[in-house]
Structures are given as structure tokens and as C-alpha cells.
Write a structure and sequence with these properties.
Length: 65
């Protein structure tokens, strides 16, 4: 199974109820240490006017195989 190692988020702007949001996630690191693979995923949420609403990153580790 996978283990959730860390998570960071920053709330940058407010949005109105019912606003349309876009979420984009990208793998920014992918490394292997011993029998484990570490992935760090960066997250960005923008409002319909392209303003950044939330940003963050999360690191997970999973067995290499």
C-alpha cells in the first residue's frame, strides 16, 4: 500500500459560492530510495478569472514494484 508522508497547502484567495474552479496536479519529483518510490505532487486551484485560489504539494511513498 501507499503511505501519505506530507502535505502543505496555502489558501491564497476567497471564492464565491457556486464559482467554477479548475484544479491542476503535476508530479514534480519521482525518486526511488531502496524498496520505496517517493512521489511529490504539486496542486494549483484557480478560479474562473484565472486567479490562484489554493496551492500545495503532497508527498506519498509506495512500494517500488
Amino acid at each position: 500500500g501507499t503511505l501519505h508522508v506530507s502535505q502543505e497547502t496555502s489558501n491564497i484567495n476567497t471564492v464565491a459560492v457556486g464559482a467554477e474552479l479548475t484544479c491542476e496536479a503535476n508530479v514534480i519529483t519521482n525518486s526511488v530510495r531502496g524498496a520505496w518510490r517517493f512521489l511529490t505532487v504539486e496542486l494549483k486551484v484557480t478560479a474562473d478569472n484565472k486567479a490562484l485560489v489554493l496551492s500545495g504539494k503532497s508527498t506519498i511513498m509506495l512500494p517500488k514494484n
